[in-house]
Amino acid sequence: MARTARDDEVATRSIPAPAPPSAPRAAAPRSHHPRAVFVGALVGVCAVLAGAPASAAANDAGSDVVVHVETANELRAALTSATPGQTIELADGTYVGNFKVTGRAGTASAPVMLRGSAAAVLRTSSGGGNVLHLTDADHWTVLGVTLQHAQKGIMVDSSDHVTIDGVTVHDLDMEGIHFRSSSSYGVVRGSTIHDTGQNRRGMGEGVYVGSANDYSDRSDHVQILDNTIGPRVRGENVDVKEGTTGGRIAGNTFVGDGLTGANYDDSWVDVKGNDYVVEDNVGTATTKSGFQTHQQSPGWGCGTVFRGNHADLNGAAGSGRYAIEVTVHDPVTCPVTVTDDNTVVGGDGLVNPGVPVVPADGTPTPGPTEEPTPDPTDPAEPQPTDTPDPEPEHPEECDDPTLTAWSATTVYVGGDRVLHGGSLWQARWWTRGETPSYTEWGVWQHHALC
């Protein structure tokens, strides 16, 4: 979807497109140091006995602490004073206002969490602005709450490693969740987004990554996983902009019944950045195509891999109705990979003409090979004797006394190591309840056989 301005910004920067990056930015090293949760609470109790506010004492201690809030004013105060390792726990109820977090970053080993049930509802009073705005707030997690009745749901500016998990976002004039101003390594997971873009100007994307025509916005490596986006999302379900790289869009359910045609929105996913993986998504109800790439300037809109997606194009109108529509494809300068495990019903086909479909394993399917006929006059050759491989050495790190077995109820952050299935695994980012397994883009990285 092409656009050059958004109403909530003073002006849209228009920066000439640089050469596309040759390699993604490396993630900052992360480490994990266990903390005793009771230390902060004990300090708070002592402070109360001494006459000081418990919340202030807990913040001064800098320990992992749960701050319980029940009113909008208490929520504002907690967001303003948040410290690494804190959890802000929302009671069920309605919190009215535009809530902001500025400069209150967590760390890789001690993220800040804003947590509540779906019955903890954040909304604005007028329907304007953002419900929740994170600025310079690295390593935050927003978990479980509902955000509604605003211009935008969650805005993430200049904040890396922000995880949005299991939230519900709806009843908005514009997009649901926006990563902007070089906010990298973000995750939107297990969330529901619907009824966006209610002003019907085609700016109601479900998840929006980057900025239009601003190649300095390097909101890279954003992952959009296992969400339900739609119905009545009045814009693309996911729109990733030129200048961004290395993201992953996987396991989502898209419903495109809200597509307006304004600003060229006519697909569930529009990729204008580079080197994205789009896999295992299911889409229904679109006006034209399912998944698209576009090139806003040379060298962008390249490197995307589409695999394992299913597109239902029944009801799409006009010509050029493809599950995957690739605007520019050049095997050398702008490759795009479409594998044969993508499927489609309805429409005009899986992919537009000229774009090859390759085997899902990335290699050509070999043809049958004739067995050679042995020559009976040839002497029999001795058969090689199998030599067993030597037993692998037991890694010393597997004997680390601090290692524990993986638990489905434990929260792990990037750098945490666990034992599971006879192996040592290391978490790449915040996770809970995801079983360690061999997956290229999964949260767990296999480290060693133990």
UniProtKB/TrEMBL annotation:
MF (Gene Ontology): carbohydrate binding; hydrolase activity, hydrolyzing O-glycosyl compounds
Compositional bias (Pro residues): 365-387
InterPro entries named among the record's database cross-references: Beta_helix (IPR039448), CBM5/12 (IPR003610), CBM_sf_5/12 (IPR036573), PbH1 (IPR006626), Pectin_lyas_fold (IPR012334), Pectin_lyase_fold/virulence (IPR011050)
Domain Chitin-binding type-3: 403-447
Protein name, entry field: Sheath polysaccharide-degrading enzyme
Organism whose genome encodes this protein: Cellulosimicrobium protaetiae
Bias-annotated ranges (Acidic residues): 388-400
Biased composition (Low complexity): 345-364
GO biological process: carbohydrate metabolic process
Basic and acidic residues biased stretches: 1-11
Pfam families linked to this entry: Beta_helix (PF13229), CBM_5_12 (PF02839)
Cellular component GO terms, alphabetical: extracellular region
Keywords for the protein's UniProt record, in alphabetical order: Hydrolase
